[in-house]
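Record pair follows.
FIRST:
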Amino acid sequence: MLLAKIVCACFAWSIVILSIASVWFSWEKGRKHLRRLHQIPCNRCVFFTNDYRLKCTVNPTQACSEEAINCIDFEVKIKTCNSCHNSPNKSYITFLRKVFPVQYLQKKDIESKYP
C-alpha cells in the first residue's frame, strides 16, 4: 500500500513538472518567434504602400514576411514620402477646414498653398 502511494505521488509530481516545462518551452519558442517577426523592416521602407492589396511595389511576394528580413531593396522611409498616410499637410488642411467655414476657405486655395 505504501509503495502504491509513493508511485502515485511520483507520477503526479512528474506530470506537474512536465506541464510547467511544456509551458516554459512554449513561452520561449513564442518569444523567439516574435523577436524574429519584429526584425521585418517593411513598415520602415520607402516601397511599402500600407495597402493590403499591394504591400510592396518592388517585392510584393516577400512583403511583410520572414523573407523580407534581409531584403536587398530596403530603403529607409523619410517623413515626406508618398507611402506616409499621416502627412503634416493633410492634417493641417483638415484643421483649417474645421476652423474656418467653407465659404471663407475655398478648397483650391488650400491645395495650391499646401499640396
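SECOND:
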Amino acid sequence: MARNAETSGSGAAESASSAKEDMDLLKEDLARLRQDLQAIMKDVRGFVSDQAKDSVEKGKVFARDAGEQIDSARDDVQERVREHPLTAIGLAFGAGVLLAMLNRK
C-alpha cells in the first residue's frame, strides 16, 4: 500500500510537471502569435496607406482632367455663342419657356 502511495505521488508530480511544461509552451506560442499579429498589422497599415495615397493621386488626376474638359466645353460654347448669337438667344428663350411650362404643372 505504501508503494501505491509513492506511485500516485510520483504520478501527481509528473502530471504537475507536464502541466507546467504545457503551460510554458502555451505562453511561448501566445507570445509568438502576438508578435506575428503585430507584424501583420504593421504590413496591413503600410498597404492601406499606400493604397490610400494612390487613390488620392488618381482622384487628383481625375479632377484635373475633368476641370480641363469643363474648361474646353465652356470655351466651345462661348465660341459658338459668338458665332451664332441669335441662335443662342433662341435656344435660351426656348429652354426658359420649357422650364416655365414644367414648373406650372
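COMMENT: Residues 99 and 105 are 10 Å apart (CA to CA).
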